[in-house]
Specification:
- With 317 residues, this protein is of the alpha/beta class.
- It contains 14 helices and 8 strands.
- The protein has an 8-stranded mixed β-sheet with strand order 1-2-4-3-5-6-7-8, sandwiched between helices.
Length: 317
């Protein structure tokens, strides 16, 4: 019996050691190109970690905030920013847990990000700013608009998250999934399986872009690097995302917001017209526009059309 137990322990230890080595190799391969590193990177020392951001141009302030999906970073907007710097002082950030920002082993929530945006505007931008935000980051920006009306001007939301989905709270199943992903070695290995290059390619082809021939290899590689920078700590934001800790009910705040809001939808994004109509039901002042032949990332797939809509909405009337 003792011999069998010893053999089992040795086999288990050997398997775990092998998986650990696989994790290290995969992380290294995903980050070896250093695509996100450049001389334009600045860092804001926030109380929960360093926040990577870039600043360009001059004029009225404009802050870009990326989505919460795996691999998201301020790279999401790189095709827009340089074309807006003549009239705007443009800031683009990596949220805590994403891109090249710090990735502490904590639970990530919408309230955490609302605090980050509020502090970033007050301590870095230091004046009232308009915001461009995409996907599942829309709720915490709307919350920030409600709580800090004197710091946020106009708001542009790209493919906002469905109101029903963002009301979903952590369940026993999603809590267990979060806890499992946070386990050393095995949880990390599962994160690698769920977020590898093939998975990102499939997301771009099926969800992010309308036309797969428009997808560039560098998009995939930048998303992949963003998903693995910070080594094993990169999984914690994903674990909170999967666990639905980033969701929250914002109907009360949505009703009371007085900011000028434009919602831009990818015309081919699933159920986007119904989603935006639901937002308009709670706040009739919301404007809407749709970018033809695009899905979830019109800022990458149709940047010229996006820039045109941003300029029209932000111009003084």
């Amino acid at each position: 019996m003792n011999k069998k137990l010893t053999t089992a322990i040795l086999l288990s230890a050997s398997s775990i050691a092998s998986i650990h080595i696989i994790n290290r190799i995969h992380t290294s391969l995903c980050t070896t190109k250093n695509l996100l590193e450049n001389c334009e990177n600045n860092y804001y020392d926030w109380r929960f970690g360093k926040i990577r951001y870039q600043k360009k141009g001059s004029g009225t302030s404009l802050l870009f905030i990326h989505d919460l999906t795996v691999g998201s970073s301020n790279y999401e907007y790189h095709r827009l920013i340089n074309n807006l710097t003549e009239k705007h002082e443009v800031y683009s950030i990596d949220l805590l847990g994403y891109g090249l920002s710090d990735k502490p082993p904590i639970t990530y929530t919408n309230n955490l990000y609302e605090q980050l945006i509020s502090d970033f505007i007050k301590n870095v931008i230091k004046r009232k700013t308009s915001i461009v935000v995409s996907g599942e980051s829309v709720p915490f920006v709307l919350l920030s608009c409600h709580n800090n009306p004197d710091t946020i001007n106009k708001l542009i939301c790209i493919n906002p998250q469905n109101l029903y989905l963002q009301n979903q709270i952590p369940s026993n199943q999603t809590i267990l999934m979060k806890l499992f992903l946070e386990i050393p070695v095995l949880g990390t290995f599962t994160y690698h399986v769920l977020t590898n290059k093939h998975t990102l390619e499939k997301m771009f082809e099926e969800e992010y872009f309308c036309h797969s021939n428009e997808i560039r290899e560098k998009y995939i590689l930048n998303y992949l690097e963003a998903a693995y920078s910070g080594k094993y700590y990169s999984k914690y934001a994903f674990a909170s995302y999967v666990g639905k800790y980033m969701n929250m009910n914002i109907l009360h705040e949505l009703k009371e917001i007085n900011n000028s809001i434009l919602m831009i939808g990818g015309e081919k994004e699933q159920d986007i017209k119904t989603t935006i109509e639901n937002y308009k039901y709670y706040n009739a002042a919301i404007e809407e526009v749709y970018i033809p032949e695009t899905k979830h990332l019109p800022q990458l797939e149709a940047p010229d059309e996006m820039i045109e809509q941003i300029n029209i909405f932000l111009c003084d009337k």
